[in-house]
Known about the structure:
mainly alpha; 385 residues; 13 helices; 66% helix; two-stranded antiparallel ribbon
Amino acid sequence: MTACCLLQLAMAAWVTLSILWAEMPEQAWSKWDWAFKVILFSAFIPFSIRSRVHIEAFAQVYVIALAANFVPFGLKTILGGGGYGTNLGLVSGNSGLAEGGLLSTACLMAVPLALFLGRHTQLLPRYTPITLGYLAVALLAVATAVGTYERSALVGLLALGATMFVRSRHKLRLGLFILVTAAFVAVLVSDAWLDRISTISTYQRDHSALTRLLIWQWTFTYAIHHPFGGGFMSYLINHVALPDGTVQFARAFHSIYFEMLGEQGWPGLLMFLLLSVITWIGLGRVSRRTRHRPHLVWCADLATALQSALAVFLTAGAFVGIAFQPMYWYMIALSISLCEYVRRVEWAERLAQPQSRWPQRAMSPAAVAGPPAQLPPWRAPRPNA
């Protein structure tokens, strides 16, 4: 039972307790029905995912299941281009993986895991076609993120490249991969994508960006007067006035941080930040302790991959309201499983070493052999007659 597990359980209890003062109780229960299960299941995962095979199998299932959604989207983007609000995957509508902000963030979080599996998989044969297949999955994930035309995807892509490069042990190889990916993106994007991304620097004139800033301001003011938040779906009561005189009602938070603050208040935001910081520090500690140990190098690479995935979520998520989506909580659970695996391996290695901390003095062969053995009377040699 680690500090992260306790924070997960505390979060599950807090989101349930916040229903008591929810601004919109009926709608709050509908979100609690799936968010509570996600948090509780992520707290359970480290108790069942314990070995290297378990950890890799979890990562394989996660990446391959997600690839079913972004591989078609990525291929269509390469062949014909993407578009903002365009459904090119398996899911239609504007929720779940059909929503561009969630899909692009999930895709970029899967990139470092796919590259890790291509390098260290044991469940699949390490043949060149398998490695190239994982590389293709990573590139299609990037293509999907770019094809959504989401500005948060660009932020996440920059965070992903910077984190992977800083934490990598093979900077030359990774730098070449980043350059190839950048060239791939440059060829892939169109003028419409550039026009959409350029609105980042002119947010005052962009209706969507300006509305987000006003919603964040409203949420902060609301949290000052309601420190415990307004429960799930509390954004339904917000309203902001735009410079042109129009009033916007019930606009989503569009940020994991303001989503936590508006729905779960300062306690929920504090638990969320503590969980992220403790997990990041734990992964860094695992990476430092295992990167120079041949039988645990895979742990160092997985720790770096998970840090890169968290960096994407914590940066791109600043502009998307996806705080309770499974991908973040499952990465936390996988990080706990990895840290505990390394702890158990190190504990077993310490038990196998000599217990004394003091250096032993050199001893003569006679002292090592000990006193001569005393034979029992019935085996003692008879004296000569």
